[in-house]
Amino acid sequence: MIETAPNPQTPAQALEPVLRVEGLTKRFHPSIPAVVDHVSFGVAPGEIFALLGPSGCGKTTTLRLIAGFERPDGGQVWLGGENLTHRPPEKRGIGFVFQDYALFPHLSVFENVAFGLRNLSPARRRERVEEVLSLVGLTVFRDRRPHELSGGQQQRVALARAIAPGPKVVLLDEPFSSLDAGLRQATRDEVRELLKRSGIGAVLVTHDQEEALSFAERLAVMRAGSLEQVGTPEEVYARPRTPFVAQFLGRTNLIPGEAHGIEAETPLGSVRLAEGALGPVLLSLRPEALALEPGGEGVVMSREFKGHDLTYRVRLAGRDYVVQADPHCPCRPGDKVRLEARDPAVVVGRSGGEA
Amino acid sequence: MRASRRPIPWHFLIPALIAGAGVLLPLAYLGVRALEADPRTLAELVLRERNLRLLLNTVALLVGVLLGTALLALPLAWLTTRSDLRGKRFWTVLLTLPLAVPGFVGAYALLGATGPSGMLEAVLGIDWPRPWGYWGAWGVLVLFTYPYLFLNLRAGLLGLDPSLEEAAQSLGYRRMEVFLKVVLPQLRPAFYAGGLLVGLHVLGDFGVVSLMRYETFSYAIYLQYSASFDRVYAAWLSLMLIGLTGGLLWLESRLLSGLSFSRVGLGSARLARPVPLGPWRWLSYPLLLVPVVGALLIPLATMLYWALRFPYENRVSVTEALANSAQAAAPAALVAVLLALPLAYLGVRFPSPFSRLLERTAYLGYATPPLAFALALIFFSLRGVPFLYQTLALLVLAYALHFMAEAIGPMRSALYQAPPRLEEAARNLGFGPLQAFLKATFPLLWRGVLASLALVFLSSVKELPLTFLLAPVGYSTLATQIWAYTSEAMYAEAAPYALLIVLFSACFVGLLISQERRR
C-alpha cells in the first residue's frame, strides 16, 4: 500500500480527517484470503472520497465495515475522534445510500426522509424534512410512494434520507449503477453539488473510473482487498504507482525500459522520466503522451476517428501502442511512422515483473 | 406475453363460459329461491333474532381464530427464517404438516384424545377436559389452519430486502424497533393473504363446528337441512354466509389496495444475517412444540390408539367407503381439469379483463362456503334438472365446480413454460388452432394436468360438507363416515377412516409443496 503526501492546495486536506479507517481487515473464511486487507485512509470534513476498483475487490465490504453492517477481524474505524469499531450500526451516525436505494416501500417520500429524525419534535422534524426535500428538489413528491418515482428521484430520496439526520459522513455504495447512462451523468452532478452544499463528507464506492475521476476530490484504487494508491484524481491519473492503477484508470501503454537517472532506453528510443530511476523499469505512457511522426519503423495498424480526436494502433518491434493524435493527423493504416514521447513517462514497476 | 385483441377461439371460449355458468347459475338461483317467500314471511325470516346470534357467533369464531393463528404463526415464521435456531428446515416441514389434517379429522382426534375415556386418560392417565363449543372449535381451527399464515409469513420474511433493515439501523433504530417499524408493516400483504385463507376455512367449515356443537351459519344451515327443512330459511342462511364471505374478500382487497410492496430498485440477493437467540432459545422450544404436540403427535397417537381398538368385523364398510370416495373423486378430478384447462389457457394466452373475470368466477366457486354451494346446487337441480338430484353425477359436478380453482394453478404454470411460439410454429406448418394446441402445447402441459388431477382428486376425497348434502342416500365416503362415527362418540369405529384421510391429505400437501417449489 502506498500513501501519498497530502496536497497542500486543497484546503479540506489540511484539516484533521473526520473519518479515519486504520488497518481494517475482514475475512469471511479463515481458509480464503482476506476480502479487506489492512485498509487505511482518512476523509476530511466535507471531502468527497472514492473507493475505486473492479468488482470483487472488497470495496463494498469496506463500506459495510465502516457502517457497522459487518464486523471487522482487525483494524479500527474512527469518526470525529471517537472509536466506532465495536458500535452497532444504529449508534454510529453515519449515513448510508444503498446501491438499490432500500427505500421503505410502505412509507411515503416524506416518511422515508423523516425516518431517521424521530428524536426531533414533530414541528422540528417537519421543518427538517422540508429543508432536505427542497435541497434535493423533491418537495412536490413528498406524498408519493417510492415505487411511483423514477430511478433518479428514488436515488435523491435515498440521499435525502441519509443526510437528514445530519451525519458527518455519508457512504454511497455504487449509487449510480442502477441508473441508465443518460440519467447517470445528470444525477451524478446533482448529487455532487448537493454534497458540497451540505458540507458532509462522503465515501463513494464505484467500479467506474470515469465516475471516480469526475466525482471525487480524492480517490483510492483498490485491488484484491488492498489499496494500491491514494491521491487526487489528477495525481493518480498522472502518476500511477503500479501497472494495475495505470491500466485501471484510463488507457495506457506499458513499456519496458532501462532507466539511468532521468532518462530511460526503451523500444521507442530515449524517453524522459517523471522521476529519476535506475535499472530495468516498467513505464506507463498515456496515449495522449505519444505523437506520430511520418517515416520510421512503426506500422499503423488501425485508425479510429472519434470526432474530437483520432486513436491509432501502431505496431513497433512486435508490440502494439495506442496513440491519441489530433484529428488532422494524415496517417492511414499501412503508413510507416515513428513514435515520439511528448510527456515524461511514469515508472510503475520493475521490468520483467507484472505487466 | 402479448395482450392482444385477437379473437378468442370458440373451442376455448365455450367450455370456459360453461365453467363460469356452472358456478354462477346455482348461486343466482339461491337468490331467486330466497326471494320467493311473501314479504311478511321474508321480513320475519331475515329479522329473526337468531340470525343475529349466528352472525355474532360466526364473527367471534372468525376473529378469534385469526388472532390465534397470527399469534402462533408470526413467532414460528420468524424463528424458522430469521433466527439462528438449529434445524430450521426440519422445523419448517414439521410445522407445515398439520395442513395434512382436515379440520374435522383434527376435531375427531382431539375429541378422541380427551375426556374420561380418551386416549390421554388411557395411556398417560391425564383426564384432559373434552373441548367443546366456542373454545373447542377455536382450538381445533387454530391448530390446523395456522400453517396457511405460517407459510405466507415465511415467504414474506424471506422476500424482504435485508438492506431495508440495514438502512433503518444506519438511521439509528435498534433491532426490535426495526422489526416493528420496517419488517412488520411490510408483512401486511402476507398477513392478509394468509388471513384470507384462514378466514375462508373458518367460514366454510362445517365439520369442526358441528362436532364441537358450536352454532355458526354452517351449523345452522345443516340443522335446517337435516331437521325441519325450511328451504327459504336455509337459502337465507346460505346467502348470509355467502355475504359474510364476500365481506371478507372485500375487506382483504380493500386492505391490499394501495399496498404495493414490491421491492423498489434492483434488490440484492444477499440473505439476512440470522439473529442470535441467546438465552431466548430455551423459550422458543415450548412455542415450537405447541403445534407439533397438539396438531401432530396427539392426533396421530389418538388415531393409532383407536385404530387398534377397531371392531374388525366393520372392515368391509371401510373398503366400501374407500371405493365410494374414489368413485366420486376420480371423475370429479377429470371434469374439473376439463373445465379449468380453457380458463387457464385463456388467462395465459388471451389476457384481458374478460378472461380475468372468468377466472375469478372459478375462484368464487372455491371461496363460496361448500355448504351454501351444495344447497344452491340442490335447489338448482331440483328445479332445473330434477333427474340429477340424489345422483352421483351431481356430487361429481359439485366437486368439480368447487375445486376447479385448484386445477387452474398447476396448468397455468405449465402454460407459462410453453411459449406461444411453439403453437405459432405448428400453425405455420399447416395445423388449425385446435390441432396446433393439441400437437404443440398439450404435450408440454401433461405434468401440470397430472398435478391438477391429483389436487382435485385428493381435495374431493377429504371434502365433507359437499359430500354430506349431495351424496345419494346411503352413499357413504371416508369423510362422511368419520363425521358420523365421531358425532356418536364412536372413536374406534372412525379411526381407520381418519388414518386413510390423513394419508390422502399428506399426499395432497406434499404435491402442493412440490408445485410451489416448481413455480
Overall spatial form of chain B: globular
> What is the number of helices of chain B?
23
Measured distance between first and last alpha carbons of chain A: 18 Å
Helix content of chain A: 10-25%
Strand content of chain A: 35-45%
The chain-level mean pLDDT of chain A equals 87
> N-to-C terminal Cα separation of chain B, in Å?
17 Å
Keywords:
heterodimer, A: 355 residues, alpha+beta, six-stranded mixed β-sheet, four-stranded antiparallel β-sheet, 9 helices, 17 strands, disordered N terminus, B: 519 residues, mainly alpha, 23 helices
Description:
The complex is a heterodimer of chains A (355) and B (519). Helices cover 24% and strands 36% of the residues of chain A. Chain A is built from nine helices and 17 strands. Chain B has 519 residues and is mainly alpha-helical. Chain B is 77% helix and 0% strand. Chain B has 23 helices and no strands. Chain B has helices spanning 10-34, 39-46, 49-81, 88-96, 103-113, 119-124, 133-159, 162-170, 175-186, 188-204, 207-211, 217-226, 231-256, 281-307, 315-349, 353-367, 370-384, 392-417, 420-428, 433-461, 465-470, 478-487, 491-518. In chain B, helix 5 (103-113) packs across helix 14 (281-307) and helix 15 (315-349) packs antiparallel against helix 16 (353-367). Chain B is globular, with a radius of gyration of 24 Å. At the A-B interface, helix 5 of A face helix 8 and helix 9 of B.
Produce a short descriptive summary.
The complex is a heterodimer of chains A (355) and B (519). Chain A has 355 residues and is of the alpha+beta class.
What is the topological layout?
The complex is a heterodimer of chains A (355) and B (519).
Chain A: H1 11-14, E1 19-26, E2 36-43, E3 48-52, H2 59-67, E4 74-79, E5 82-83, E6 95-97, H3 109-114, H4 122-136, H5 151-163, E7 169-173, H6 181-198, E8 201-206, H7 209-215, E9 218-223, E10 226-231, H8 233-238, H9 243-248, E11 253-266, E12 269-285, E13 290-305, E14 310-316, E15 319-325, E16 336-341, E17 346-350
Parallel strand pairs in A: 3-8, 3-9, 6-7, 7-8
Antiparallel strand pairs in A: 1-2, 1-4, 4-5, 9-10, 11-12, 12-17, 13-14, 13-16, 14-15
Chain B: H1 10-34, H2 39-46, H3 49-81, H4 88-96, H5 103-113, H6 119-124, H7 133-159, H8 162-170, H9 175-186, H10 188-204, H11 207-211, H12 217-226, H13 231-256, H14 281-307, H15 315-349, H16 353-367, H17 370-384, H18 392-417, H19 420-428, H20 433-461, H21 465-470, H22 478-487, H23 491-518
Helix pairs in contact in B: 1-13, 1-15, 1-16, 1-17, 3-4, 3-7, 3-10, 5-7, 5-14, 5-23, 7-10, 8-9, 10-13, 12-13, 13-17, 14-23, 15-16, 15-18, 15-20, 16-18, 18-20, 19-20, 20-23, 22-23
